TrEMBL record:
This is PTS mannose transporter subunit IID. It holds the Pfam family EIID-AGA. GO terms for cellular component: plasma membrane. One of its GO terms (biological process) is phosphoenolpyruvate-dependent sugar phosphotransferase system. Keywords: Membrane, Transmembrane, Transmembrane helix. The chain crosses the membrane at residues 118-138, 144-164, 185-209, 229-247, 254-274. Signal peptide: none annotated.
Amino acid sequence: MKTSNSKITKKDITNMAFNQGSLGMEFSWNYERQMHISFAMMINKILKKVYKNDEEGYKEALVRHLEFFNITPQFAPFVGGIVASMEEMKARGEVDGEAISSIKTALMGPLSGIGDSIFVGCLRVIAVGIGISLAQTGNILGPILYFLLYNIPAFIVRYFGAHLGYDIGFNYLQKMQQNGMMNKLLAAASILGVMVIGCMSKDMVWTTINIQLGAVGEEITTLQSVLDGIMPGMIGLGGTWLYYWLLKKKVNPIMLIVGTMIVGIIGAYFGVLAG
């Protein structure tokens, strides 16, 4: 529910759900920060409206929303709605920028798990199955039905998700601010955000060290198996920490990508790393 002093209208939220940034959430995807540019584009007009008389506040908000972001694209407007309400609170001095970043980070993992299961693992498979079965018989409805079955639910989720996110921001975040629950929410969001990054480090940053330490019968003990016995994903987490440290030292991300490729090729050539 929009409050009387809100600068954002329902039309603004609807436009955000279907603008170029929202619909192009994967078009500007990159390895460094993934969907950050599209998210900033999606919410840019709302930021201009919220910080109409505060140029520095607008610049800080843009920089804030160029941080790492990755989510099932259909759920991005929901996060955008929550962020829009929090940016209004930020403009009034009720929350700080770190609170907004913490909420975004906390929502990425859970919503992506739900969204990927629904849209990628279920809905798309059903739509493709129906479309292909019709197309194989020469029926022109095959590609048309695929397009409709996949996109109609997606656009419905975008629309209602954006408005629900904005309403949640006003109805619940402001109440939490008044009764002192906001600090607890932000602490929980920060913890969840750290857990999400930790899980991503294990599942998305991986390698296998092929150094053999010995053999018992036909079973070969490798350095990788020893490390996995101590803590699975140790190499991925260590690599993430190293890259984070290098980024803080202002090392160019492109150099890190090229360096990773070189280390991988050399390591595979000499048998130190395995696929």
